[in-house]
Design goal:
There is one protein chain. With 430 residues, the protein is an alpha+beta fold. Helix content is 32%, strand content 30%. The strands form 6 sheets. Strands 3-5-4-13-14-15-12-16 form an 8-stranded mixed β-sheet. Strands 6-2-1-10-19-18 form a 6-stranded mixed β-sheet. A hairpin with a 2-residue loop joins β13 and β14. α1 packs parallel to α4, α3 packs antiparallel against α4 and α8 packs antiparallel against α9. The termini are far apart.
């Protein structure tokens, strides 16, 4: 039987991580990517950098990430945090292609014009080139077509302004506003970025956006600290949706959605790239199962869909809680909408020993989705399989049979015993 042909649409972090993960499993992969059409910078944490390196994208990071001091005006407080890392997305995206090619992934530059599915996938590019795929990975971010059953948060737009200033020390800042919030950054070579995120309704027309944004910058003390007088001049504006969206169905028999094409969160939490990778890192194993173990297809699809939905809710609640820190603005429409969405459920539910149970759920094992007994808790509804390399289900079953915790854990090495005992204590079981 010939090896399946896999095509990934999009070479951002999610598409690149999925493609490299598939190459590690031995698949032939082609990535279709269109160049980013506007300059952008993202502020990311050390955790994001670590996740990118783990995904095989360290080469891109070495060329595109620079540390910067960061100021925060939020919740009535003014803080100067140690640093965040500024990621030049155009430079990063170019370097991602180098990482892909080093990993043996084919890269085709082009824009998808038409998709057809007739016993396989036909991808026709704007230049007329036709690619055939047995399996399709949708990783085009917010540009990917969405199903009718998608879930949307409050309608939000981000206006990104860019201009050239004087070279200087890299720096970034974030501040809350009456009707939204702004993030800004200055790179070492003097490139400047200012992005304001607001309700989608009530903005001026396209022709008036540059002057509107310049007027807003003129009222900001933080802008005056970070930039020179060129910040007060109308600059190039790129408007884009930043509404939180869950795509609906995210996996089928021969296709899968990853990254922002599956779930896109409000940028406030600073987790954009991290959440993209969260769905992408599991995707190669899900795809491997769909292709190699068709008898487990339903299990693999359940695994991906449930985890995308849980990740979306988790990141949405993180964003809600960031908005919730602005209590002094809680009556303002922008903040009121976002402090109550997606729900009122706490990010972490309190431990409830009575609710802990053992169930069979999909897990990742040896490069495939499999089924195993896991421990389901109030805070981990999809279940926890291992802690410190120890399967939890046998431990919990033994405790429920009446054995004392000391006896159940006695045969474990000291570090594992401490880790499992700590977890049991957190759940109210020890």
């Amino acid at each position: 039987m010939p090896e399946p042909c896999i095509v990934v649409l999009g070479a951002g972090p999610a598409g690149a991580a999925t493609a490299i993960g598939l190459r590690r499993l031995g698949y032939a992969v082609t990535v279709v990517s269109d160049w980013r059409r506007f300059a952008a910078v993202e502020g990311v944490s050390q955790r994001v950098l670590d996740a990118l390196r783990h995904a095989g994208l360290g080469g891109a990071l070495s060329q595109a990430a620079m540390p910067a001091t960061r100021r925060v005006h939020w919740g009535g407080q003014q803080l100067q945090l140690n640093q965040e890392f500024l990621l030049d997305r155009q430079q990063f995206d170019r370097a991602l292609r180098d990482d892909l090619q080093r990993a043996g992934v084919g890269v085709v530059e082009g824009r998808v014009g038409e998709l057809r599915h007739d016993g396989g996938h036909q991808v026709r590019l704007d230049d007329g080139q036709l690619l055939l795929a047995d399996f399709l990975v949708e990783a085009r971010g917010r540009q990917a077509p969405l199903a009718a059953d998608r879930l949307r948060g409050p309608e939000t737009v981000s206006l990104l302004n860019t201009w050239q200033g004087a070279p200087g020390t890299p720096a970034s800042a974030v501040e809350s506003l009456e009707d939204g919030w702004a993030w800004m950054a200055r790179l070492e070579d003097g490139r400047c970025y200012w992005q304001v995120t607001l309700d989608a309704a009530g903005l001026p027309g396209k022709a008036g956006l540059a002057a509107y944004c310049a007027a807003r910058r003129a009222r900001s003390a933080l802008v005056a600290e970070l930039f020179d007088a060129r910040a007060l001049v109308p600059a190039q504006v790129h408007a884009r949706s930043s509404t939180a969206i869950l795509a609906g169905e995210c996996v089928g028999p021969d296709w899968i959605r990853v990254g922002d094409a599956a779930m896109a969160v409000d940028p406030l939490s600073g987790n954009g790239i991290f959440q993209s990778l969260s769905s992408a890192l599991q995707a190669p194993v899900v795809i491997n199962t769909l292709l190699r173990r068709p008898g487990r297809a339903a299990l693999a699809r359940q695994f991906h869909q449930q985890r995308v939905e849980q990740l979306f809710l988790r990141f949405a609640r993180i964003g809600r809680d960031f908005h919730g820190q602005e209590q002094s603005r809680a009556e303002q429409p922008f903040w009121a909408r976002r402090q109550a969405w997606p729900d009122r459920q706490p990010l972490h539910l309190a431990a409830d020993g009575q609710a802990v149970r053992v169930e069979r759920r999909p897990v990742l094992r040896d490069g495939l989705v499999d089924e195993a007994e896991v421990v389901v808790t109030a805070d981990q509804p999809l279940g926890v399989w291992h802690v410190q390399g120890v399967e939890l289900a046998p431990v919990v079953r033994a405790l429920y049979s009446g054995r004392p915790v000391e006896a159940v854990l006695s045969n474990l090495p000291g570090e594992q015993q401490m880790g499992v005992r700590r977890w049991l204590t957190e759940q109210g079981l020890a």
